[in-house]
Design brief:
The chain is mainly β. It contains two helices and 13 strands; from the N terminus they run H-E-E-E-E-E-H-E-E-E-E-E-E-E-E. The longest helix has 6 residues.
Length: 129
């Protein structure tokens, strides 16, 4: 069996499309290679559907693809967000921003942008005394 053969074989995705295990995802001019998780020979989404889940950062207009870290800084009441902005929590005025806009780097990441186009929050360890 060829080692690289597994990446060229198409599998059925839950979205109804066939997809490769590893392929490029492109949106808004950005691109990255993505390997989809495979369980019992299937995956939830094909790479083309993952492309459609991409959004733009509320702060810098940078591209946020599935699997990328996100931030959620508070937007001041008088600040007008771009139309393309996606809210992490609209009531608290927390739009989704990209990890590149994190002032303190990974320490400011709220989570990752995950299928089907939502924030998967980072779970922190809590220590009891």
């Amino acid at each position: 069996m060829k080692l690289f053969g597994v990446f060229k074989k198409k599998i059925m995705a839950g979205c109804g499309h066939e997809t490769l295990v590893k392929d490029r995802v492109s949106a808004f001019g950005a691109s990255r290679e993505v390997k989809v998780p495979v369980v019992d020979g299937k995956t939830d989404y094909c790479h083309r559907c993952l492309e459609k889940m991409a959004i733009k950062c509320a702060w810098c207009d940078g591209v946020i693809l599935i699997g990328m870290p996100i931030t959620s800084y508070v937007a001041k009441k008088n600040f007008v967000l771009p139309e393309h902005s996606v809210w992490f929590d609209e009531e608290q005025r927390l739009p989704v921003g990209c990890g590149r806009c994190a002032e303190m780097g990974p320490a400011d990441w709220t989570g990752i942008w995950a299928p089907p186009g939502k924030v998967k929050e980072i779970e922190f360890c809590h220590f009891e005394e």
